Amino acid sequence: MSALHIKKGSSSHSAYNLRPTFSDVAERHTIALLVENEPGVLARVIGLFSGRGYNIESLTVAEVDHTGHLSRITIVTTGTPQVIEQIKAQLGRIVSVRDVHDLTVEGRSVERELAMLKVVGSGDKRVEALRLADIFRANVVDSTLSSFVFEITGAPEKIDAFADLMRPLGLAEIARTGVAALLRGD
Question: Are 98 and 127 in contact (CB under 8 A)?
Answer without folding.
Answer: no
